[in-house]
Write a structure and sequence with these properties.
2 copies of one chain form a homodimer. Chain A has 383 residues and is an alpha/beta fold. Chain A folds into 3 domains: 86 residues, 434 Repressor (Amino-terminal Domain), CATH 1.10.260; 130 residues, Rossmann fold (3-Layer(aba) Sandwich), CATH 3.40.50; 130 residues, Response regulator (Rossmann fold, 3-Layer(aba) Sandwich). Chain A is built from 13 helices and 15 strands. In chain A, strands 5-4-6-7-8-14 form a 6-stranded parallel sheet, sandwiched between helices. In chain A, strands 10-9-11-12-13-15 form a 6-stranded mixed sheet, with helices on both faces. Chain A is elongated. The N and C termini of chain A lie far apart (96 Å). At the A-B interface, α4, α5, β5, α6 and α12 of A face α4, α5, β5, α6 and α12 of B. The first copy, chain A, binds a DNA duplex (30 and 30 nucleotides) through β1, α2 and α4.
DNA sequence: TCATCTATCGCAAACGTTTCCGAAAACGTA
DNA sequence: TACGTTTTCGGAAACGTTTGCGATAGATGA
C-alpha cells in the first residue's frame, strides 16, 4: 500500500529495518531509502513559502537530510540528493534567509548611511558599493541621514538592529560626537568610513585627496594669474572642510600670497550661503580675482550670479571647485573641478568593509586615499 | 545567602513557594518576586549582543517574562517590568530583528528595484520612498538592475529571499516578460509598480502623466510656431515610451500636422543615439524646427551639439523634454521640460505599498497618476 | 477552613535553518 | 558467524523571540 516517493510504484518497495522506531522502506527501482510519516490529509493550510519541512514531508525524509542535500554535504546518498533537488524545484523552494541568518549569526547584508542620496557624489558612491557588494553576495541596506545627527543615530541603530554584518558611513555635517558609532565598534562590528570620516575612531577609512585636491585647484588658479583668491569652505566642524581649507592655505603660502580672513567663508552648502559670501567679497575694496569652493554646487551658484551681474569669468574672477558632475561640464562657462571619482570611492569602501567582515580577527584598520584628477575648464582658463 | 536581584540585600528575602519546581523568592523591600537559577560562574563567553535570555538570567526570571515586560503586556507586575527595563538599558539590549521577523513572519522591510540610482529621477524617487518608509517604521533595501533584465530577476529573487514585506519596482528598459514578478504576486506578496510599469500585471501603479505631459510639451512647441517637430522616443518595448510617443502624435493631430516616420527616432537613452538621431534630422531636405525628447538628458546632449554646429536655439530649432533636473535649468539655453516630481512619485508609491502590506486582504490594486508641470524655459521660448 | 478568583509568571512550542551526535543498515573481513 | 567499518540518515538542540496554556500563591468570600 505504500508507494515510492520518487517513482510511485508499490511493488518495488521492501521493508528495510527501522530508523528511530520508524519503519524504513527501500525502493528497489530507485535505490532510494525513505521512511513513512502518518499521512495527514487534512492539512490544507493556506499557501505559504515552501520550507525544507515541506520537502521533507513529501519525500518521507527528515529536514536535516533535506538541509544536507541542499548544502552540498558529503554525507548523503546521491539519489536522495537528486530527489530533494527535484522536489525543491517542483515546490519552488527558496531558503528563508532570515532563518539562515539567525542561525549563522550573519546576515550577508551591509548597511550604508549617507547624508543625501540625491547628491550625485553619494549616488555614485552607492552605485560603487552596490556593484562590489552584489558581486560578493552581499545585500545593501541604505539609509539617509538628511544631514541630521539625530537621524544618523537612528539610522545606525536601525541597521544594527537588523544585524547588518558591517557598516559604511559618511557622517552628517553637524556630527561631532561619535558615541553612536563607538558603541557598536566596541561590540566588534566592522565599520568603514568614507568621505566624511572621523579621526578619533579606529576604523578603516576611504578618503579623497582633500588637501592635495584643493592645493592643486588653488595652485592652478595662481598659475592662471590670480592673486586674491577667496575660499568658500564647508562647515567648520567637518574634517574634510578643514583639510580642504588647509590645502588652500598651503597653496597660497607656497606662492607667498597672504591669507586673508576676509576672503574665507564657511558655508553650510546652502545656496543662500554661497550668494552671501559672493556678495560680501564683491563689496570689498579689493575684489578677489579667483574663487575656490569646496563644493561644486556653490561654485555653480556663484557662476549664475556672476553672469547676472555681468562680471566676466574667468577674466575678472576665475573659479575652481571640488567635485565633478555633468552639470559642471555643461554650464557656461564650464567649471574647473577636482574630480573625486565617487564610484571608485564606493567600490573601495565596500571592498575594504567586506574584507574586514570576512577577516574580522586579523583585520587592521587603514586609510585608503582615492586619487583625484584636476579637470581644467573654461571657468579658470585665462590663457 | 541569596540576594535580591534588584537591591542586593539578603535579609529582606523570604521564600515564597515554588514555581514549576524552582524555589520562588520574594524581596520584602522591593516587593519583587523572582526565582533562582543554579549560578554558572564558568560561563565566560565571548562578548555578544545581549539577548532577553541574558536579561532573564541576571534577574532570575524567565525569558518570557522579559519579553512581556518589553512588549507592554498587561499581565506583568509593574516592579518586574521596571527592573527588566533597567537591566535592559544597563546591558544595552537591542531586540534581534531577525528573530522577531522570523517569528512574526514579517520583516518590516520593503524592497526597491530601480534601473540606476545615479539618474536624478530615480534618486529622487528613492528619497521619497525612504521618507515615507522610515516614518512608517519600515526599512528599505535597494537594488539596481543596471537596465539588465537578468540582474532585475536576480534582484527580485534576492529581495524575496530576504523576505521583504513588499516590493517597489520600476522595470528595465529591456524587460518584456514578467514571470519573475508573477511568481511572487501569486504567493500574495504586495508589489507596486512605478514609472516603468507593466499593464499585464494586477498591481497597484504610480505613473506620471506620460501622455498628457508629452502632449503638453509638443502642443507648447506648436504654439511657439514649430511645424516640423521631431521626436526622440525611448525603447519601443517600454510602455511609458509608447505613451509619451502617443502624446506627441495626438498633439500633432490636434493641429493637423503630419506624423512623419522620418522624424521619429527610438533611442535607448545613450548619448550616441541622440546624436545620431540629431544628425539624421539635420541632413533631411527639410530640417525639423522643433525637437521633443522623452528624456531630458537626450535634449541636453542635443543642445550641446547644436551649439557646436552654430544652430540657433530656439530660433532655428526649439527643444522640449521630459523630466526636470538642476542641469536643465542651468545650461544655456535652459531647457523647457515637463517636471515629473520624482520625490512625490516615491512618496506615493511607498504609501500605497505600505497600505497594501497592512491591509493585504482588502486591498484592491489601482493606478495613481502624479500630475506633472510644464516648465517653459529658453530652449523653446521664441516669443 | 475551604473553595474560588486574580495577578503573575514559567514552560514549551513555534518560526526555518543548520549541525552535532548517534543509530542502524550495509558492507567488508576474518 | 562474528566482528569492525562505512554510509546514510534522524533526533534534537541551537539561533532569539513571541505567545498559548497552564501553574502557583495570595487574596477574597462563604
Amino acid at each position: 500500500m505504500i508507494a515510492c516517493t520518487k517513482c510511485g510504484k508499490v511493488e518495488t518497495i521492501v521493508k528495510s529495518g527501522f530508523v528511530r522506531g520508524k519503519q524504513r522502506l527501500y525502493c528497489k527501482d530507485c535505490e532510494l531509502y525513505f521512511s513513512v510519516n502518518p499521512p495527514n490529509p487534512s492539512t490544507n493550510k493556506k499557501p505559504h513559502q515552501t520550507t525544507i519541512v515541506d520537502i521533507a514531508k513529501t519525500l518521507g525524509i527528515s529536514p536535516s537530510t533535506v538541509s544536507r542535500a541542499l548544502n552540498n554535504s558529503q554525507e548523503i546518498n546521491e539519489n536522495t540528493r537528486n530527489e530533494v533537488i527535484r522536489v525543491a524545484n517542483e515546490l519552488d523552494y527558496r531558503p528563508n534567509l532570515l532563518a539562515q541568518s539567525l542561525h549563522r549569526g550573519e546576515t550577508h547584508t551591509i548597511g550604508v548611511v549617507i547624508p543625501d542620496i540625491q547628491r550625485p557624489f553619494f549616488a555614485g558612491v552607492v552605485a560603487g558599493i552596490q556593484k562590489v557588494a552584489s558581486e560578493a553576495g552581499y545585500r545593501v541596506m541604505i539609509c539617509q541621514s538628511n544631514e541630521s545627527h539625530n537621524t544618523e543615530t537612528l539610522n545606525v541603530q536601525a541597521l544594527m538592529a537588523s544585524r547588518v554584518d558591517g557598516l559604511l558611513i559618511s557622517h552628517t555635517k553637524e556630527t561631532n560626537s561619535f558615541e553612536h558609532i563607538k558603541l557598536h565598534l566596541r561590540k566588534g562590528i566592522p565599520i568603514v568610513h568614507f568621505d566624511r570620516v572621523c579621526d578619533e575612531l579606529e576604523t578603516a577609512k576611504v578618503i579623497q585627496e582633500d588637501f592635495e585636491g584643493s592645493f592643486a585647484l588653488v595652485e592652478h588658479l595662481i598659475k592662471q594669474g590670480c592673486r586674491r583668491i577667496a575660499a568658500c569652505a564647508g562647515p567648520e566642524d567637518l574634517l574634510i572642510s578643514q583639510k580642504r581649507l588647509n590645502g588652500y592655505k598651503a597653496a597660497l603660502q607656497k606662492y607667498d600670497l597672504p591669507i586673508e580672513t576676509d576672503l574665507i567663508f564657511h558655508s553650510s552648502f546652502k545656496k543662500e550661503d554661497s550668494l552671501n559670501a559672493l556678495n560680501n567679497w564683491l563689496e570689498l575694496s579689493q575684489r578677489p580675482d579667483g574663487i575656490f569652493t569646496v563644493h561644486y554646487a556653490n561654485a555653480i551658484e556663484m557662476i549664475m550670479s556672476l553672469k547676472q551681474k555681468g562680471i566676466k569669468i574667468p577674466d575678472e574672477i576665475a573659479l575652481a571647485a571640488f567635485g565633478d558632475d555633468l552639470l559642471a561640464s555643461m554650464i557656461e562657462p564650464s567649471l574647473t573641478v577636482y574630480n573625486q571619482f565617487p564610484f571608485t570611492v564606493g567600490q573601495e569602501a565596500a571592498t575594504i568593509l567586506i574584507d574586514n567582515i570576512i577577516n574580522k580577527e586579523i583585520f587592521v584598520p587603514f586609510t585608503k586615499v582615492i586619487k583625484g584628477e584636476l579637470i581644467v575648464r573654461q571657468s579658470s582658463n585665462k590663457i
